[in-house]
């Protein structure tokens, strides 16, 4: 059997913090524990926020922590053709449609206490654009109207297996697990790509995991619910199913999950204060 494959996949749009250290450290240690491989992936599809200097600083922080990974590092920005191909496949299946509503229009349309919301609390995308004719869609695109591509959830569910689920490991030792029923309908018509970038986080992550042969996805609890969308895309695109472990989060001073703006928990700030890598590992309970 092939060795298990783990990955750490940060976005270079800010400096790494303690939450990243926890996730990277868990992946590396779990891979070592089971004789697996540890990969690094740079999720840099956001062309405006992903800066080359931040990529370099991110790698420096990970090296300072004592982590090692296989080469070459996969950078999403170098694989846009892969994502575009998957998007075209979904278009050919009739499972995505162009969505033209601006954020302001969506807000105005959904400014109702009873409007359904996704697991992250955002309002579900209105169905208005699904009623446009093919001719109207083509006209708007030809005129250069800004748009995204959204998954037609109702149609996608018709193509999905009747019982969609994933294997969730409940502990970092991969000893106790259970099957979790996936409910992607809770997310409504999720964004799959933009007109300027032929992908989104959801589409990229399932394709990257498949291309890299990732067998064990270890990531934060904040992405637990999104796994339902990823399992749906994996089924639609005939991609392999990894197993999952969603680890605890490191919380900031406000009791919420850390953000890159939480300077006090930044790896670079801690390094400047004289912390050692061992102190970081103790802080995230991985010493």
Primary descriptors:
tRNA glutamyl-Q(34) synthetase GluQRS, Rossmann fold, alpha/beta, three-stranded antiparallel beta sheet, GluQ/Sye, 287 residues, 15% strand
Kindly describe this structure.
- The chain has 287 residues and is α/β, with parallel strands linked by helices.
- It folds into 2 domains: 1-78 and 257-287, HUPs (Rossmann fold, 3-Layer(aba) Sandwich); 79-249, HUPs (Rossmann fold, 3-Layer(aba) Sandwich), CATH 3.40.50.620.
- Helices cover 34% and strands 15% of the residues.
- It has 10 helices and 10 strands.
- The chain has a 3-stranded parallel β-sheet with strand order 1-2-3. Strands 4-5-8 form a 3-stranded antiparallel β-sheet. It has a two-stranded antiparallel sheet with strand order 6-7.
- Strand 9, helix 8 (227-236) and strand 10 (243-247) form a beta-alpha-beta unit.
- Helix 7 (201-211) packs across helix 8 (227-236).
- The longest helix is centred in the N-terminal third of the chain and has 16 residues, at 18-33.
- The radius of gyration is 20 Å and the shape is globular.
- The model has no long low-confidence stretch (mean pLDDT 93).
- This is tRNA glutamyl-Q(34) synthetase GluQRS.
**What do we call the CATH homologous superfamily of the largest domain?**
HUPs
- Give start-end ranges of low-pLDDT stretches: none
The N- and C-terminal alpha carbons lie at a distance of 31 Å
Q: Tell me, what is the CATH class of the largest domain?
A: Alpha Beta
Instruction: Indicate the radius of gyration in whole angstroms.
Output: 20 Å
Q: How many domain units? A: 2
**CATH architecture verdict of the largest domain:** 3-Layer(aba) Sandwich
Average pLDDT confidence is 93
Annotation field: number of helices:
10
Provide the helix percentage.
Answer: 25-40%
């Amino acid at each position: 059997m092939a060795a298990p494959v783990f990955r750490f996949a940060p976005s270079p749009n800010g400096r790494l913090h303690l939450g990243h250290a926890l996730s990277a450290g868990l992946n590396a240690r779990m891979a070592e524990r089971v004789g697996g491989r540890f990969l690094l992936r740079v999720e840099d599809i956001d062309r405006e926020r992903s800066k080359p200097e931040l990529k370099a600083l991110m790698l420096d922080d990970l090296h300072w922590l004592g982590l090692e990974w296989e080469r070459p590092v996969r950078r999403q920005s170098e694989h846009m053709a892969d994502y575009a191909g998957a998007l075209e496949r979904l278009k050919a299946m009739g499972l995505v449609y162009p969505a033209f509503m601006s954020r302001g229009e969506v807000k105005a349309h959904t400014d109702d206490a009873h409007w359904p919301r996704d697991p992250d609390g955002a309002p579900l995308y209105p169905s208005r654009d699904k009623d446009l004719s093919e001719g109207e869609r083509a006209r708007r695109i030809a005129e250069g109207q800004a748009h995204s591509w959204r998954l037609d959830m109702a149609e996608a569910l018709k193509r999905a297996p009747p019982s969609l689920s994933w294997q969730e490991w409940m502990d970092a030792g991969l000893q106790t697990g259970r099957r979790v029923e996936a409910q992607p309908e809770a997310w409504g018509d999720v964004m799959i790509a933009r007109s300027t970038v032929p992908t989104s986080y959801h589409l990229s992550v399932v394709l990257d995991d498949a291309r890299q042969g990732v067998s064990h996805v270890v990531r934060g609890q904040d992405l637990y619910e999104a796994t339902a969308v990823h399992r749906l895309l994996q089924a639609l695109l005939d991609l392999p199913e990894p197993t999952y472990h969603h680890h605890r989060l490191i919380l900031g001073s406000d009791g919420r999950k850390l953000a890159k703006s939480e300077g006090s928990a930044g790896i670079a700030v801690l390094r400047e204060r004289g912390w050692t890598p061992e102190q970081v590992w103790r802080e995230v309970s991985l010493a």
